[in-house]
Amino acid sequence: MKCKWGIVIVFLILVGCSDEKILEKTGFVRSIAYDAANDNKNGNSIRLTISLPRANEKETLIYSTEARSSREARMIFDRQNNRKIVNGQVRQVLFGDKFAKKGIWKHIDALVRDPSFGNRVHVVVVEGEANKLLTKKYPQGQTVGEYIDDLIRTEAKVNDIPYTNLYSFVRDIQDDGTDPVASLIKENKTSIIINGVALFRDDQYVAKVQPEDKMYFALLHEDIGAGNIYMNLSEIDPNKHEDAALLYVSSDRKIRILSSPDTLLNRNKLKVAIDLNIIGSLLEYSGELNMKKEEDQKKLEALMVRLVEKKSLELLSIMQKNRVDSIGIGQYARNLISFTEWLKLPRREIISNAEITVHAHVKIKDFGRLLQ
User: Fold this and answer.
1) Which of 86, 263, 296, 353 has a Cα at 20 to 30 A from 45?
2) How far apart are CA 159 and CA 218, in angstroms?
3) pLDDT of the residue at 372
């Protein structure tokens, strides 16, 4: 009996040793980029690119290949270097915009099934080819992966873009009451820039929120704890040249379904109201109003209300035109009826044809030194 237990213990030790990873012989992937293959006649091949930081953390090794799947690509990478490639340090997965328009679920699903991937990996869409972005060098002194990671975290911290990671992206794909979104980036001459928000219909990238409208989308998308917003008030009256900037913006969003359950079941036009309550500090104002006068302060708040409602309706129009529900109206509509009945309905048509109104309330809590 002692002999048998000895054999078992030795066996367990050997099994444990087989999973040993020596740091110097391990390549930690920082970024993964997906693009359509250059010669892709059958539409099944992909170009997969990975970046592995060197020991000095200022240089990266880049591997790129065309394959039928990410697993096949990984096998090719293993034959090209003397390190064991592992995924435990992946910070972002990048999808070229043309590739993302075809659908990315099978690649996202493969990542989720791999236990070495963390749920906090950023999901990012690149305007252009994602692999070219990884191969560039920028003067900031960071690797591309680190730079993108810092950029997204900084922007998301001030609610300028939704914080989209692998967990939230998969959650929203599988939720029949909303659609996922992702940060949209592009390369310019000297750096990488956030260039809007990518809107998905299921797993396909179908529409874009322009960079100047990111904060208005954020107001519709979720409650905001702290953010900044620039308002071009000339959009309300082109004859006037006015603009304002709010700091420390906080807001709460409420979506109200005004229709009865019978409206949904009979597939009549759904009526939806969105309430936006916004509070912020006025940092800057350029215009004819005198901020020392309370009546002019009220006029400025009224102008801001009109602009927020105008921009919100424009964004909602883009979503409805592309049949996407990026702000989760469907989550509220399905609560009116049973889940079984909800699944039988043409949900995208109901949301895209809905009559949506936006009611904003803006409160400037202080005017800073403008009163001095």
Assistant:
1) 86
2) 7
3) 38
- Count CA atoms within 13 Å of residue 78 on its CB side: 10
Could you tell me if 208 and 199 are in contact, meaning their C-beta atoms sit under 8 angstroms apart? yes
H or E stretch at 2: helix 2-18
Please enumerate in sequence order all residues whose Cβ is within 8 A of that of 223, keeping only pairs 6 or more positions apart, or say none. Answer: 251, 252, 253
Q: What are 198-210's pLDDT values in tens digits? A: 999 999 999 999 9
C-alpha angle with apex 59: 57 to 63, nearest 5 degrees? Answer: 115
pLDDT at position 83: 67
CA pair distance 28, 5, nearest whole angstrom: 37
Check: CB of residue 230 under 8 Å from CB of residue 247: no
Mean pLDDT of the chain: 85
User: What is the H or E stretch that residue 35 is in?
Assistant: strand 31-36
User: Which residue ranges in the chain fall short of pLDDT 70?
Assistant: 1-27, 39-43, 55-58, 81-83, 85-86, 88, 138-142, 368-372
| Backbone φ, ψ for residue 97 (5° rounding) | -65, -40
User: Using CA atoms, how far apart are residues 324 and 178, in angstroms rounded to an integer?
Assistant: 8
Number of residues that this document lists for the chain: 372
pLDDT for residue 115: 82
Radius of gyration of the chain (CA): 25
Question: pLDDT value at position 6?
Answer: 54
pLDDT digit string (tens) for 9-41? 544 455 554 444 444 456 678 889 999 887 655
- Sheet with strand 243-257: strands edge to edge: 229-232, 243-257, 271-286, 355-366
The number of beta carbons lying within 10 Å of the beta carbon of residue 22 is 8
Nearest Cα to 364, choosing from 274, 252, 250? 250
Q: ∠ at Cα 167 (163, 171), nearest 5°?
A: 100
- DSSP designation for 269: P
Q: Is the dihedral of CA 187, 192, 198, 202 positive or negative?
A: positive
Question: CA 87, CA 203: separation in Å to the nearest integer?
Answer: 23
Interatomic CA distance for residues 191 and 204, integer angstroms: 27
